[in-house]
């Protein structure tokens, strides 16, 4: 083989490989544009509008990943890599990745469970594990909460589904339980009347179910009363702070003693 023949073969290979590489780049770019267009049309479609927003967001993310995987396989095929080899590599890589990413697969399973069982939805206020906040995003692997002090907390879906979840937004109303303590010797009936009066005066306290108040415990240094009222979920904290303030002011005005912890010491004389 002379040098010219060798050079021609090199040029032919370069042209062939270059055309494949160019075609792969074109397919990759066009494919990305097509995927963006498809995702845009899916999000604007009537079916997507009818489905729950949480479910729609989850399925859109899954579809986006699936389309990109298909695009990558097409690009690899254009480059001339045998598909049997690609499948074998993907299968082997899948096993290795599955073992290495057991946590990620757990999070994926958790995301699917959230999608199916709906323990919470976007904009719900929930308590999950040691965190509580408003649900801002439900992804395939992670859920994002915004805490009351405006911190963004990203929690793995697997962790959320393995712990207790308290959804404070599931119902329209909530019961507020307050405890008040007065000194021994205070008129029990009078205290109950004051607490029920202050609860009844508050505009955000519901009349049905009506407020409840009873003496619940004879503590070491105090008589403890429970006041339970119902309110709308969005008014919970407003009613909580208002009643604490108004009851305190009323106790002061009525001369009702709010006790401190005390210890009576008796000295025996010989």
Secondary-structure topology with pairs:
Blueprint: H1 3-44, H2 46-50, H3 53-78, H4 83-100, H5 102-117, E1 125-128, E2 131-138, E3 142-146, E4 152-156, H6 157-161, E5 165-167, E6 173-182, H7 188-201, E7 212-218, E8 223-232, H8 236-254
Antiparallel strand pairs: 1-2, 1-5, 2-3, 3-4, 6-8, 7-8
Helix pairs in contact: 1-3, 7-8
Notes on the protein architecture:
This protein has 270 residues and is an alpha+beta fold. The chain folds into three domains: 3-100, Helix Hairpins; 111-167, Roll (SH3 type barrels); 173-254, Alpha-Beta Plaits. It is 54% helix and 19% strand. The chain has helices spanning 3-44, 46-50, 53-78, 83-100, 102-117, 157-161, 188-201, 236-254; strands at 125-128, 131-138, 142-146, 152-156, 165-167, 173-182, 212-218, 223-232. A five-stranded antiparallel beta sheet has the order 4-3-2-1-5. A hairpin with a 3-residue loop joins strand 2 (131-138) and strand 3. Helix 1 runs antiparallel to helix 3 and helix 7 packs across helix 8. It starts with a helix and ends in a 16-residue tail after the last helix. The mean pLDDT is 83.
Strand order of the largest sheet: 4-3-2-1-5
Straight-line N-to-C gap: 127 Å
* Domains, number: 3
> What is the rounded Rg?
33 Å
Morphology? elongated
Quick gist of this model?
With 270 residues, this protein is an alpha+beta fold.
What attributes characterize this protein structure?
270 residues, alpha+beta, Helix Hairpins, SH3 type barrels, 3 domains, three-stranded antiparallel sheet, 8 strands, 54% helix, elongated
């Amino acid at each position: 083989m002379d040098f010219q023949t060798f050079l021609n073969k090199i040029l032919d290979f370069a042209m062939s490989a270059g055309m494949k590489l160019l075609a792969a780049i074109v397919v990759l770019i066009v494919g990305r544009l097509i995927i963006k267009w498809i995702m845009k049309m899916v999000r604007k479609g009537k079916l997507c509008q009818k489905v729950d927003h949480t479910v729609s967001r989850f399925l859109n993310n899954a579809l986006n990943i699936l389309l990109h995987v298909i695009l990558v396989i097409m690009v690899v095929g254009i480059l001339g890599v045998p598909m049997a080899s690609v499948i074998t590599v993907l299968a082997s890589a899948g096993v290795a990745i599955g073992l290495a990413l057991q946590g990620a697969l757990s999070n994926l399973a958790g995301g699917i469970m959230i999608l199916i069982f709906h323990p919470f939805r976007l904009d719900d206020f929930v308590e999950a594990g040691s965190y509580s906040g408003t649900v801002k995003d439900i992804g395939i692997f992670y859920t994002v909460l915004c805490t009351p002090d405006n911190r963004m907390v990203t929690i793995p879906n697997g962790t959320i589904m393995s712990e207790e979840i308290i959804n404070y937004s599931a119902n329209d109303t909530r019961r507020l339980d307050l405890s008040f303590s007065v000194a021994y010797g205070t008129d029990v009936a009078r205290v109950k009347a004051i607490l029920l009066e202050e609860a009844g005066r508050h505009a955000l306290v519901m009349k049905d179910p009506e407020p409840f108040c009873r003496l619940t415990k004879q503590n070491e240094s105090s008589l403890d009363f429970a006041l339970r009222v119902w309110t709308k979920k969005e008014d919970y904290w407003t009613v909580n702070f208002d009643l604490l303030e108004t009851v305190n002011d009323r106790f002061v005005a009525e001369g009702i003693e709010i006790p401190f912890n005390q210890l009576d010491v008796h000295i025996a004389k010989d």
